[in-house]
Specification:
It is built from 13 helices and no strands. By secondary structure, the chain is an all-alpha fold.
Length: 368
């Protein structure tokens, strides 16, 4: 096949023209590579801006219409509201989480994780009290012994956690910049879509419209239904943890965020926290906080169907790999970009394979 193609190329072009073509292609490749190297530091910010613009576009269009067809004013209002959220509760929780991560990393490094010994008052509980106290104490002693043994091997993990915490400041700046850029992009939505459609028409002629719609739908589904819901849940849970004066509230809120993004759910964190609240607070406060946390825990069951409509077809494993890979590649902003980009790539690849199957009925592909 290769020899045949070369022979055809030689028939069409003279040796001189082949050299010229090679030089042109080489220069074009160099230019593309150089452009990429220059914009590489901005790729996470630009990607997150584009995602925000796509996710907020329906709200923006509605607001612009309400304001009597004023897209600039609508984008300014949206940008200010989003900035308020990023600078306000998100920053407050983020900083609290950084403190928690630093503390935990310090404890892992020394192998001296602060564990709660069994509280004396458990002993006086009717029926289960004495047994529970004994069980807790044994677990406490054994876990401490195991942690002492494992501590030297956990040192690299502590280093990774500290560098992640150190990059959070840069992450916050990237978020702020992304909100500004997204606000700038919103009024130009139709022109940008048209440009993207033209670009796709050259790569996948005949399917550019379908691919563009699929990419937009996937970005919206993942950014609103997965990431958006997880952020709302983590923020509300974090506020609850802070009100309950739980140690490491910010860190726990970040864990809720992660569990919610990878579709495991926040119950793993909320259940032990609720037990701690009942042991630490008086009945009225404990009851109010429990009701609040139960509502927060069930929030994703209510919000997801509302936001996502047709549901998410991307497998959970793709989202999990996106979260881990994105965080390793781009730090805290990658935590959100990773799953979105990977989901879009997954959906487009699946659509491409389906197309190939329908276009070539002779080939039978059994997938999944």
């Amino acid at each position: 096949m290769g020899h045949h193609a070369l022979r055809t190329l030689r028939q069409l072009l003279s040796a001189d023209e082949i050299v010229q073509l090679a030089i042109r292609l080489g220069l074009l490749g160099l230019l593309i590579l150089w452009t990429f190297l220059i914009i590489r530091p901005f790729v996470p910010v630009l990607t997150w801006s584009a995602v925000l613009a796509v996710a907020f576009y329906p709200v923006f269009a509605w607001l612009a219409k309400r304001l009597g067809g004023r897209p600039r004013t609508a984008s300014t209002v949206l940008t200010l509201v989003t900035l308020g959220i990023v600078i306000g509760p998100a920053a407050w929780l983020g900083l609290s989480a950084v403190e928690g991560i630093k503390d935990l990393a310090g404890q892992i490094g020394t192998g001296d994780l602060v564990l709660q010994a069994a509280p004396e008052r458990i002993r006086s509980w009717p029926l289960v009290g004495p047994q529970l106290y004994e069980l807790w104490n044994q677990a406490y002693t054994n876990i401490r012994a195991v942690l002492r043994e494992v501590a030297p091997y956990l040192k690299p993990l502590a280093g990774m956690m500290l560098s992640f915490a150190g990059n959070t400041g840069i992450g916050m700046l990237q978020f702020l910049l992304s909100v500004f850029v997204a606000g700038f992009l919103l009024p130009y939505g139709p022109q940008l879509v048209a440009a993207l459609r033209g670009f796709l028409a050259r790569i996948v002629p005949g399917q550019s419209e379908h691919f563009l719609e699929l990419a937009g739908a996937t970005i919206r589904a993942v950014s609103q239904g997965v990431i958006g819901v997880a952020i709302v849940q983590a923020l509300l849970a974090g506020i609850g943890f802070k009100l309950a004066a739980i140690p490491g509230a910010g860190l726990l809120a970040i864990i809720v965020l992660l569990l919610s993004i990878v579709q495991i759910g926040a119950a793993i964190v909320l259940f032990p926290v609720t037990i701690w609240i009942w042991m630490d607070k008086d009945v009225t406060v404990a009851l109010l906080l429990t009701i609040y946390l139960v509502v927060v825990g069930l929030l994703d069951n209510v919000l997801k169907p509302l936001v996502m409509g047709r549901g998410l077809t991307t497998p959970t494993l793709v989202i999990l790999v996106g979260v881990i890979g994105g965080t390793l590649a781009h730090g805290i902003i990658g935590l959100f970009i990773g799953p979105i980009i990977l989901s879009v790539a997954w959906e487009l690849a699946a659509a491409w394979i389906r197309l190939d199957r329908t276009e070539d009925p002779g080939v039978e592909l059994k997938l999944g």
